[in-house]
């Protein structure tokens, strides 16, 4: 491993053999100092006691929360975000306050806003206009605590319209033009970009300044680095050389146990 970037462990894909609230402490035991999560609750506005328990689990483990997804609907059921969905817009807006509130308590700097699948009941223009409005509102809320909103191209969801870095940057440009918010950036998941056929090396060369967060998994398979063919170490080194200083989220499905999947990363680099 030749890049200088810091790693954060995605506890929605890693350590799933443990109950959710036990995962931050397991990350600490494995030698890492930071975690990120998809939305960890079943509803957009969970009971306060559930929020408190989540915050306590991270604080007690002594790890930094580096990223949290806004509520994205029923992910196992195929949902991929609410940002562009007219019939679920109020749910997203209610969730923004909860998400940013958790971030304020834990010093989280990045909130991933999954865009949403296409809905035939509305035109693409209607969905895109609503997404710009909701992302603008989310960015303004995040700005209150000095945090950023992330927009992510995703693979494996046929009706999700943001597939390449250019797709996401087009949306980000619209939000910045409409709402004058500097704190919205690209979540560059090197796995999703590669699987969708994007030119990852070119994205890094031309757009590192727009990248607000990075995630990795190898392809094919979405398992740990070294199980596939992606030049992840080289690409992370290039990101660092182009000025990226943020976190690298380990967002992969372990091919064995979670602890067994960390063999590619020497303990002193965690």
Written account of the structure:
The protein is an alpha/beta fold and 270 residues long. It has one domain: Divalent-metal-dependent TIM barrel enzymes (TIM Barrel, Alpha-Beta Barrel), CATH 3.20.20.150. Helices cover 36% and strands 14% of the residues. Strands 1-2-3-4-5-6-7-8 form an eight-stranded parallel barrel, surrounded by four helices. The longest helix is centred in the middle third of the chain and has 20 residues, at 124-143. The protein starts with 5 loop residues before the first strand and ends in a 20-residue tail after the last strand.
Looking at the chains present, what oligomeric state does this protein adopt? single chain
Shape: globular
Strand order of the largest sheet: 1-2-3-4-5-6-7-8
- Fold-level CATH name: TIM Barrel
- Which structural category do the helix and sheet elements fall into? alpha/beta
Strand content: 5-15%
Order of helices and strands: EHEHEHEHEHEHHEHE
- Summed over residues and divided by their number, the pLDDT gives a mean of 98
CATH architecture assignment: Alpha-Beta Barrel
């Amino acid at each position: 491993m030749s890049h200088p970037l810091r790693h954060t462990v995605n506890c929605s894909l890693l350590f799933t053999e443990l109950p959710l609230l036990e995962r931050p402490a397991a990350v600490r035991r494995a030698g890492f100092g930071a975690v990120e999560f998809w939305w960890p609750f079943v509803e957009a506005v969970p009971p306060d006691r559930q929020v408190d328990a989540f915050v306590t689990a991270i604080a007690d483990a002594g790890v930094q929360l580096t990223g949290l997804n806004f509520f994205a609907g029923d992910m196992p059921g195929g949902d991929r975000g609410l940002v562009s969905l007219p019939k679920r817009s109020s749910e997203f807006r209610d969730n923004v306050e909860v998400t940013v509130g958790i971030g304020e308590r834990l010093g989280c700097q990045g909130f991933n806003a999954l865009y949403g699948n296409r809905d035939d009941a509305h035109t693409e223009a209607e969905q895109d206009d609503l997404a710009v409005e909701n992302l603008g509102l989310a960015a303004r809320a995040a700005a209150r605590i000095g945090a950023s909103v992330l927009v992510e191209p995703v693979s494996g969801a046929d009706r999700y319209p943001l597939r390449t870095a250019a797709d996401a940057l087009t949306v980000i440009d619209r939000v910045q033009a409409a709402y004058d918010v500097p704190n919205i950036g690209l979540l560059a998941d090197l796995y999703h970009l590669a699987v969708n056929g994007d030119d990852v090396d070119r994205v890094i060369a031309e757009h590192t300044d727009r990248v607000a967060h990075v995630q990795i998994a190898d392809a094919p398979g979405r398992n740990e680095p070294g199980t596939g063919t992606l030049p992840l170490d080289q690409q992370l080194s290039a990101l660092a050389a182009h000025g990226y200083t943020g976190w690298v989220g380990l967002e992969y499905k372990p091919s064995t146990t979670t602890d067994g999947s960390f063999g590619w990363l020497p303990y002193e680099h965690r």
